[in-house]
């Protein structure tokens, strides 16, 4: 009956097939978890302190200029009939606002992340492909901002472009009653990838960008067509306009801010010195209909970005939680260790 | 085929069929034979004529029969895509996802680009399709191989046999086969090179039985050296194709309107092998898919496991959760919209907020679709394949003697092995070896103990020794007087010796054993070299000495024995004889008789050649064989006695049956013999021997003639043949004279007691269902420790006792037995009582009674009863059942149970064919259940829970975001990443986890069967664990969303930049969560986890580096690279991950420290050194024993043993009602 050669069915005797692979068995018991928690806790407390201190050094100057209150400087601009309204917001800094200072505008209760708003653009147009200026394949994406009432194609089409933020600001330092304009740097405020890869202007026809847009009309809300967005700098026009690029990158949450300018030049390279400042606002953008707020924010940044106390505090809380837990566990362990020994 | 255990599968239903009176039978018979042939070709008949037939009508008909080409593939080249799609669409889950994909094409509700949303369903369905295609391709290959086999078919034009492919054979063809060729189609045997018209076939391909089966040429066909096909023009009428391997009914009508009955003895079945016969010729009656082999070929079994049922429940919960979340989003969206007055960011739209909310509901269903785990079903299938791979590759389940491992036939119930609560076991061949050894016998009331045949206790007894029987000296001496001593023995002794001779003659003749010799090819016949018969005169003289009452003056019948046969059979004489029997009992008895000199030399359908002590070889004309039938529980042969010339019926069967039939003769001697035999039988049974009684009956010639007439009717009828034959046999087997009884021992398989003990410790209730008698069953139960000496044995033998016993058991239980597994009662119940208890009214109380017992032993049960018991327990107690058996009589039970296990043993493969798992020894059950079952269950349960957790956790991130985007269905994640997150990045680790995770090592699981209880109680996957997981998923997603939210709120972060740290930390959390849940981490786990993380990062980084316009409107160019270059990203991810996993780690730690479960304690034990381990093992067992003791009242001597007289009364009562 025994046949040595006849064991074709015999399974292989390997560690894998016999499920004997060397294995680490992570049993979560107090013995491992207590030191682990302690280390994590202490590390987190360290990080938390670091983050918190860093966050404390960041200066932020925030001003709401929506003009909801009657005494606010921009109240008069909220009246719809008041076109091309300008208002002035003043503030003072008690200490040097170290540079580089970032100048943001902020909106709240503004849903750039609304789904149908988000898809309302045509990337092919924005890469400068003129074929998509007139005949767009996914008609629905931009609708109803694809054609104007005369059935002319709108470029750039879609709700995002149409709703571009169009308040403009000028900042002055008031020195002895005279206003000294603070130079605002609008270069390089958009993402490098957006400016260099993702967005392209159509190639100029006969050296003129405007000609490339022939046969199209500007978005309804825009005062000027895309090729005239920046009258001062001819290179900052079309789809490569920095403000346009910033706007097109949609904000994640309904309360957001977007970079407007940086203060890096001239006398203000080191920051805004202490003193009084006046901000002239060209008030165009309507937000009151949806209960929105507009604000300007001056801030400097650190390695961790803008001011953010939450993260530091959260690290501190979680870190201490870990430490507390490890202490609790130590107590529990001391109490139950003996009964454990009874079993084992 | 003998032995009470060998009841064929059909016995159950058959018992129920109404018995018809003789008159009705004949009427039926006439109906069968009445009516014209061609006109009356009823739909339920098939007519077969040789393929060259001229009869047009039949020719047409014959064409309509299936051809021999087989196609087991499901698809053809063209039909694959539509058919496979159609099949896949039958799955509910697939339909759901197709619905979602379709929904995405509706512009008003779409959430992603339509192309993306069909990725998951295409992915899942194409994986399944590839799997199906691969399986189908394998089937196609094997089909081609089979169809292209060659065989010799008679060609009328060329007037010779030509080679044809199997595929070209059709019904009505004459096929010639040589030895060792495989039969291409079901054929009626017309000619055999064997002069007796016999042919042997091996049915191993069909049912795995390797013993030879004898087939017979149709009676009355001219047998000569040559078969001339032209001369054959009879037609065959037979029943339509069916899947019953053991039945074939029909008749052959010769040109002269002479009809000959056909039965399964005449049928050669497709895929069997011709053995032992040079050439055979047959006519094809069923071809291709109509053959019995193909009709029996049912695909793999599909069962749904308990865990899967539970899982489907929870998928439904997920659907409800999904609907709830979508509803919240829809309502939120409606309110959000109605509160707005055309803000600048709104797309001008006239849609009413309520309508928009309705649309939003569907959009959200698309966005949150991942909540229903689409890849779960595919993953489960893959995991089960992996688990089966490991089960099949386990060396511990490998039997080197038979070279077989465990065979997993059902692919999808591995985890059920881990939840078994009731185990139903067959006895013979399952608990025992089913290697029968003749131990003792009683002849004419005298017991011959055969002391030298001592019990084989040594484990390493060579297998050859098993068949050796050492004759009892006393019996040998008595038998020797026949041959040696010429003096006349005293009269009393002479009668006894003739009894003894008859007894051994019966053992030798009354069986279906096939004799073959291993030293020579079976079909080769050697030249005659043998001493001639001792002169008959000498024999006559000897019998005269014995003074037999009736001795015929002439022995002329014997002289016309064909000498050729005698010679041929003798050629095998001196070489070692091999007995191949369908049941091991028969072989054992023939071996025993051989030891006493009564040697079976050969067998043909018409005669048996034997050597009787004191004579040379004798040829005994075999008139009839009435084969074993489970209803009769006996078999008989009708022979013409070689010496006396009388017609003698030898019957062998279950003792109770034979004793009933053996009417106490008038004289006191017989009565005394019967009484003494009964006493001996009881004694045998107590020793655990299988008992059989042997009886004979001498028929008067006219009596025989009368019986013969009726019997021939029965044999040729088509309808009701079995019933008629049964009735005919019963008419014959009356007024028997008891010759004696035999006791056959069937040794326990190795490690059976240990296995049973371990299973019982694991909380599994072990029931033994056997066809053996009560005493034998109890004895075996003792031997395998199912019964302990301290146990109460409750015998239940009739209805009245049931209530009585219940009362008694209540008394026992009242005194503190609450846990049923600790009870000390064992119920023994016999088949007749079982019939009562299976009635509706008594089922409840029976189950109540059994619940109080540690074990139940059902003896004398039929296959039907076995399956009824299993069904009763399974359905009424709602428990997981496992049935294990080895024989055809266990098939129904195996199929009924949740898990059926077949033992590939001595009794063929029928049990294996119908089982879910096949093992070769009972002891393997221990590791299969305790280790693999436990592992498979915990692995799969944990994997499924993890899957749910993973999906809920990830989807909720999207849900929370809805609160900050006006419930608009926006996502902060790129849709590709969103789809791939579940499908690719996080799907492999759970599969590995489901295949490889090992909570406790195999050795520990075997050492501590207690641990199995966690699976029985479904501890790994309780509804509460499911909800805890969902809750944890909610918590983790809250953390994972809101920490980034607070970190970034008010800043200039973009939509997809915001999603980047959320996705990153979600991935970390999900992977680390798995690490926490894993009980073992091998390099494979580590590699897969790392791979998953790297895959994600590689994908998103590559995507954000290259995708400029590839994925409008969410082109992720530059996002990840920018985010990941910001330290804040890592700070957020770190904090999120730690905070999210904190509660789970804490919970686990506290649980493990304060109240560790048994599994955790076992894990801890494994870390100890070998010495400490064994010490703590002992301590563990002591603790458990102490627990048991404290929870249980130690039983006093409250005996509820039913005493024997009571018992017999009951049996008599029950018997009267039943019979």
From TrEMBL, chain A:
Which Pfam families does this chain map to? CDC50
Q: Which residues cross the membrane?
A: 27-53, 313-334
Compartments where found: Membrane
Superkingdom is Eukaryota
- Gene Ontology, cellular component aspect: endoplasmic reticulum; Golgi apparatus; plasma membrane
The protein's matches in InterPro entries, at most eight in alphabetical order, are given as: CDC50/LEM3_fam (IPR005045)
Q: Which controlled-vocabulary keywords does the entry list? A: Membrane, Transmembrane, Transmembrane helix
The biological process GO terms on file are: phospholipid translocation
Chief localization? membrane
Which family does the record claim for this protein?
Answer: Belongs to the CDC50/LEM3 family.
Tell me the PANTHER family matching this sequence: CELL CYCLE CONTROL PROTEIN 50, CELL CYCLE CONTROL PROTEIN 50B
Per its record, how is this protein called by name?
Cell cycle control protein
Automatic annotation (TrEMBL), chain B:
Q: Where are the transmembrane segments?
A: 92-110, 116-134, 311-336, 356-378, 953-969, 976-996, 1026-1048, 1055-1076, 1082-1108, 1128-1146
Chain ranges of the P-type ATPase C-terminal domain: 912-1156
Superkingdom of this protein's organism: Eukaryota
The active site lies at: 426 (4-aspartylphosphate intermediate)
What EC number(s) does this enzyme carry? 7.6.2.1
Q: Which residues form a coiled coil?
A: none
Return the similarity comment. Belongs to the cation transport ATPase (P-type) (TC 3.A.3) family. Type IV subfamily.
Q: What is this protein called?
A: Phospholipid-transporting ATPase
Organism of origin is Cyprinus carpio
